[in-house]
Amino acid sequence: MKYEITSNSSSAVVLKDGAMLTSLKKDGTEYLWQGNAKYWAGQAPVCFPIVGVLPEGRALAFGKEVKMKRHGVARINPFELEAQCKNSVTFLQKSSDATREQFPFDYELRIKYTINGDTVTNEYIVKNTGQEKLPFVIGGHPAFNCPLMKGEKFEDYTVTFDKNITTACLRPDHETGLVDVRKRYEVMNGGNTLSLRHDLFEKNDALIFENVEAKSATLLGKNGKGIRIEYQDMNNLLIWSAVGKAPFVALEPWTGISSCSDENEVFENKRGMTVLAPFEEASFKFKMTMI
Hints:
With 291 residues, the chain is mostly beta strands. It contains 2 helices and 23 strands.
């Protein structure tokens, strides 16, 4: 089932399945990647309680085994509609036997989308509903059409941060999804603008800007159209496109990153981990503005 929220000439559509965005439109132009199995069938999955992967899909969280595939359990388990009005919609996922089989903790995950003007705010609200500590990371994975306008090509686009990037980025392995922290990749040369090229993503996977000081990034084409993403609550931003010259770019705000070569099997010690006490709650937001 789909739910549309609107504001002036802009709209967003959210699927109940996965509480996932499936459309972002302004003045009739579709900004969100519409999915194509040739490149990537996804669009904007929510990653929880991991982002990326665990080594061999396993870890120990406060002594209990977790077994999760890429990006965790939220995107593959049911949500229910909790609230809806003209410009916002909220979905709720509660831990279940199915989620506990992979991630043996109790939680409530609310995902709220609100549109004001041309800006959609994504809010993730996580509550520990159990008697034990709840460890997790969370992140968004929205992908955007690139090129966006007719007559443009992928290479006409840039991603510009609001601050210079002075630390070389990390990258996950294409096959395993794991990050070797001994390898860093200089793509920004101390500046704030990345010129997009397909070959950035053919041999290596996503660009991981870890603990990035910049808190907004703007994807913009030669015709001045694009997306600005603001991620004050997230420590990391990933930029990714699929192999095979895929016509999209994903801008992914994450609180953590995929498992790294210098980490052990202890889940709660992984980078960016949030740990909630019983019945504690935390909220994380990021914004997407259609330009």
